[in-house]
Amino acid sequence: MNKEKFAHRSSLVLIAVFCVILALAMLSGFILTDDQYSFYENRNLAAFPELTLDGVMDGSYFTALDTYIKERSAAREGFLRLSTFIDLYLLRRPVVNDVVITRDTLLPFNDFEVVSDYNVNYYSQEIANNLKSHTDLVESYGGSFYYVAVPCQYVCKSGDYPWYLNNRSEYTEATRAALFPMLEEAGIEYIDMLRYCEENDYPDSYSSNIDNHFSITGGYATYLEIIERINSDGKFSLDPLTEGEYSYSEVEKRYLGSRTRKIFDMWDITEPIGIMTVDEDIPFTRYNWGSEGASTVYHIPGEDEQYATYGVYMGGDISETVIKTERPDLPSILVYGDSFTNAVESLIWYNFDTMYSLDLRHYDEMDLESYIEKFKPDIVVCIRDYQALLSPWYNGQ
Amino acid sequence: MLFTSNVFVQFFLPLLLVCYFLIPKLGIMGKNAVLLVFSLAFYAFGGVGHFFLLVGSVALNYVGGLCVGLCERQGIRRLGLWMTVAINLALIGVFKYAGFATGILKDLGILGEAVEIALPIGISFFTFQGMSYVIDVYRHDTPVQKNPLNVALYISLFPQLVAGPIVRYTDIEGEIIDRKHSVALVTAGLVRFMLGFGKKMLIANPMGRIADDAFALVGTELLTTPLAWVGAIAYAMQIYFDFSAYSDMAIGLGKIFGFHFNENFNYPYIASSVTDFWRRWHISLSTWFRDYVYIPLGGNRCGVARQIFNLAIVWLLTGLWHGASWSFIAWGAYYGVLLILEKFVLKKLLDRIPKWIRHISTMLIVIIGWVFFRALTLSDGVEYLGVMFGMGSVDPASSVYYLHQYAPEFILAFIGIFPLKNVIAGLLEKHKEKKAVFIFSEIAPKVFAVCVFFLSYMSLVSGSFNPFIYFQF
């Protein structure tokens, strides 16, 4: 063997391979996707930067351009998938793309934290004050206000975390210990669904193994608790949906939860997403953002959709939804909160003449108090999950 | 522009390679022109505002070089030298130290407000290169370069422009005018570049995430003693693999274009003393200070007191070179004191200590030094050290998480600090006569480099954490 020739040829091959990699990289830099939204990351991708003199002079324009090319590169999703696969199966990292990987459950990674009693008390008081003012407003015209705290996934599955990760149990307990006595003191009617979970030994069906939200079973349990509380206050007598009055079914498409979504559905774990449809034929008209839409409370994914997501319930987070059933003998209700409201709303509309639904993260036409004053719903329900209990912004305002 | 940016890999490097190698009948001057244009574009990408500063620095040192190189009267030569050095120092003083100095004056109540000036990328590197050129011309170590484009290329040559190594004009003077390109050299350069790329993306960046998280917790109960150690070790790994990766990429790119830059690192974490460490770490800076500060001050050719003074000056300047803050000054002083102690007090004692103890104690000293280097303020550094040495909780949870999460990177880093590559290369060299060994030694590094580069590129595209540490200097 001519060693020099061999070395020369192997060098030429290396140079050729490197050039091919660079050429492909360059090509992927020219083939940029038009998608502005990354489905699996659930976020908007970088926009083409605006050319400004200041940006050129200080270099920020070029940095933004680099980010734009990186995020819009045609090869990006493929690399993201490959990277996730390597982390999951080859390197076996305990946390991949902010998801804690266990055999049966995918959980959110929580930053390590020091629970500050001062902060917990401060924000609890702020939340209690906000809710007190809403309660006073609703009661001023004869309505009733209820605050519903629902445990999110990390609360229900706190025991599934590896010992060295933060399951936020300390924060959860501190929040309960501070907030609920303040609500009681302020005379605010509240329902703590974590108590329901504790009393029922954390039923597996309540929460999801792959999504932050509760399941339809959890939504149903919450619905029943709300109706029971309304009835126990004596102003209304509502017939809750009970077994035999609804049909349970599972959406055919594979359920992509918020956790499986982050890891490109690469972990061999799934669960069905169920829906409960009212057997009785109750016609209703639904308005989304003020416009009439389809008369349904479930978005069943079509042929062109690969997955079902939590958006099955009420069609996802919509700033304002109104459902009118034209049954004036029944009361009206306003439900507001983050996406945990959706599963409850797909059931609770059944008991009301009109159901108003607001998500104040997106709704900006008027503030909550103005909305309540305008429509004067008989019942106002605020649903917040444990992660957001002490957040005084948006739906916590 | 960063080497590990999409624009560099996807556009800059391919276009440069095409222009440099594929434009027909491009002589050395043409190739230099291509390199110069791309180098200036490389710098301008970081902000056109500071690009003019680079051009000004080139012009200053070119004129300074002409003055000290062409004038025959010693007085004018000396004046030219001092003026050039003074203006260089003034530039670096204004852009790098004005904020710090006016901050001190503000704290003393002498000034109302501290000035805030954005730090031009790589100013410490290109200013030192420019000064060394003029000083070398003054000393008659090298003839003056009359072609301004060649001076511009020397100072702004993109591989080493923003993060070193600090290249002396004498090192590449000949190659600017005449250099050879070969398949073997390009291959060696590519392998070096790809491995450097991998060190940065696959080891330094993940280590940086740990260090950033740990150092961000100074002053909170979340910084436990185990986490403080994990964070400090991670930072020690980050800064080595980050900076040496940049040097690897610079040296590799230099080879591709026919330049031979000197090595900047020689496995510093196997050092058996602080003196040994500084012979292995950022060699181009250490030798710069040795040749342009320490020796001119008298070096070792004077009494002990003067030597101590010289060392103190050099290490004060070394600390300041790295950054304008008290923590960098403390870091420089820390090494100054340690080196003085080793040289004048502990030398005989150290010789009697077993080598493994010296290795471990040196690493401990280095890690403690990096804590000052990384901490935002001197008091943060002291507090962090306090937690490392017992003034914090011993809850191991967070440190176990980081060790578990980044186990592959820690393993790679611990392997990477030892000269295993040299050992393997030595073994292969011994048996190179055997056909299989020869084929393996030819193929394996190339395949390995390509795989590392692919994984690194994947990490670049899929990740967003990508800061280069040495850009701030």
Attribute tags:
heterodimer, A: 397 residues, alpha/beta, 8-stranded mixed β-sheet, 3-stranded antiparallel β-sheet, 38% helix, B: 473 residues, mainly alpha, 2 domains, 0% strand, globular
Brief overview, please?
The complex is a heterodimer of chains A (397) and B (473). By secondary structure, chain A is α/β, with parallel strands linked by helices.
Give the domain tally of chain B: 2
Structural class label of chain A: alpha/beta
Structural class of chain B: mainly alpha
Q: Would you list the SSEs of chain A in sequence order as H and E?
A: HEEHHHEEEHEHHEHHEEHEEEEEEHEHE
> How many structurally independent domains of chain A?
3
Provide the residue-averaged pLDDT of chain B: 91
Give the mean pLDDT of chain A: 92
Low-confidence stretches of chain B: none
Tally of individual helices of chain A = 12
The largest pleated sheet of chain B is described as: none
Q: How many helical stretches of chain B?
A: 21
The helix-strand sequence of chain B is HHHHHHHHHHHHHHHHHHHHH
General form of chain A: elongated
Instruction: Kindly report how far apart the N and C termini of chain B lie.
Output: 15 Å
Detailed description of the structure:
The complex is a heterodimer of chains A (397) and B (473). Chain A has 397 residues and is an alpha/beta fold. Chain A folds into 3 domains: 1-26; 31-74, no CATH class; 117-396, no CATH class. Helices cover 38% and strands 17% of the residues of chain A. Chain A has helices at residues 3-30, 53-58, 60-72, 76-90, 117-140, 153-156, 169-185, 193-199, 216-232, 258-262, 341-348, 368-375; strands at residues 37-38, 43-44, 95-96, 99-101, 106-108, 144-150, 189-192, 246-250, 254-255, 274-278, 285-288, 291-293, 307-308, 320-324, 332-337, 354-358, 379-385. Chain A has an 8-stranded mixed beta sheet, with helices on both faces. A 3-stranded antiparallel beta sheet of chain A has the order 3-4-5. Chain B has 2 domains: 28-179, no CATH class; 185-462, no CATH class. Chain B is built from 21 helices and no strands. The mean pLDDT of chain B is 91.
